[in-house]
Write a structure and sequence with these properties.
The protein starts with 31 loop residues before the first strand and ends in a 7-residue tail after the last helix. The chain has a single domain, classed as Alpha/Beta hydrolase fold, catalytic domain (Rossmann fold, 3-Layer(aba) Sandwich). A 7-stranded mixed sheet has the order 1-3-2-6-7-8-9. Strands 4-5 form a two-stranded antiparallel ribbon. It is 27% helix and 20% strand. It is an alpha/beta fold and 237 residues long. 32% of the residues are buried. It is globular and about 80 Å long. Helix 2 crosses helix 3 and helix 3 packs across helix 4. The chain has 6 helices and 9 strands. The longest helix has 18 residues.
Length: 237
């Protein structure tokens, strides 16, 4: 009896199909924590961006000392959540990874704009807008400022720096200057070499900045925060 060999039995296997990646917009819910009353008249808004795998509810508490009438503090949550302890009881969020990085940046820039709209900070209004980014959120804050259509009055980076993917033109056209870099004297991530490298890069890009030191480590320091709140932003200088 004649039998025809199946493919792969002596005739070789057909070429494996190629994997292709497709991108589709997904509808999902995202959270934003707010100190203050959305919808009420405000003098200024502080947009604050949390660090890597932080809880947004915990992070916004760092800004409670400067939550005063007339100031709305808005903390959007990064779109990627993960468990941050072995017992899977604590959850934090991050802004992006290296996978699909350009699309992730595009997504969170759009999400932050939407979060501000949703709490009543419309782009057509003229509310003072100040941006604080901590650690991974420092890069997030800079990229958002570089790509948003909104005018920003002051940028403060805590325990982080300007991401290297932003060009001199991006920075010069969008970042209010001088930008403020807040550094903890005991911050294990910001060594003297890292700070000097950031100085050299910003000097090379002709970006005006100042570095202020505070006691403690990798955190938003309450005393330094209060001092910043008392100092004028670039809008009033």
């Amino acid at each position: 009896m004649n039998t025809t060999p199946l493919m792969g039995e002596g005739q070789g296997r057909p070429p494996a199909p190629e994997i292709t990646v497709h991108h589709h917009e997904a509808i999902r819910s995202a959270r934003v924590c707010v100190l203050g009353t959305p919808g009420q008249p405000v003098r200024e808004c502080w947009l604050v961006c949390h660090g890597y795998l932080q809880s947004v509810e915990h992070f916004i508490e760092w800004f409670r000392p400067v939550a005063v009438p007339g100031r709305l503090i808005v903390a959007p949550e990064g779109l990627s959540r993960a468990y941050i302890d072995s017992g899977q009881t604590r959850v934090g969020s991050s802004w992006m990874t290296r996978v699909d990085r350009d699309r992730e940046i595009h997504d969170y820039v759009r999400w932050i704009d939407q979060a501000l709209d949703d709490v009543g900070i419309q782009s057509a209004g003229r509310v003072g807008l100040e941006v604080h980014g901590f650690s991974q959120g420092a890069a997030t804050a800079c990229r958002w400022v570089a790509h948003t259509h909104r005018r920003v009055d002051r940028v403060v980076l805590w325990g982080g720096g300007v991401p290297p993917d932003l060009s001199a033109a991006d920075l010069a056209q969008s970042l209010p200057q001088p930008m403020i870099l807040m550094v903890g004297r005991d911050d294990p991530y910001l060594t003297s070499e890292a700070i000097e490298g950031e100085r050299e890069r910003l000097d090379r890009l002709a970006i005006r900045y100042r570095i202020e030191y505070h006691d403690g480590g990798h955190k938003v320091d309450p005393d330094a925060l209060l001092a910043l709140a008392r100092s004028p932003s670039s809008r009033s200088q």
